[in-house]
Specification:
Length: about 150
Amino acid sequence: MRFARTRREPVEVNLTPLIDVVFLLLIFFMVSTTFETRQALELELPETVSGAAAEVSPVTVVITAAGAYRLGERELTPAELPAALAAEADQAREHGLVVEADGRASHADVVRVLDQAGLQGIQRVRIATTEGIAGDNVPGETISPQAETP
């Protein structure tokens, strides 16, 4: 007895959805890994010729041109600065304090940070600058020699 053979269609795997998912995952990981943890501020640091490169201190106070303060990831007002600096004082006494002040920041804003550092007993205070060679503006961050606070 002869049975009729049924024709089988060849089995094919459609790769289009797989490729779409792989591209979506690739885009997701590319976008999610390019975010920086530190928020960049537009700072124009003052220039110095005699500054030397130094290690980055874990305690850094940033002063913007508008007079706003940033300690770590927190934005601070001048009234909040003493308490926030007191919370980081132990680490700053051990490793030092770096002041990143915009070149357009007022002198009073910088002095306020230096005064609070002195009140907290922080002896090693450094001011971040950019490297300048005989008036040339050569980008590169340096930190001026340590200033001992009284």
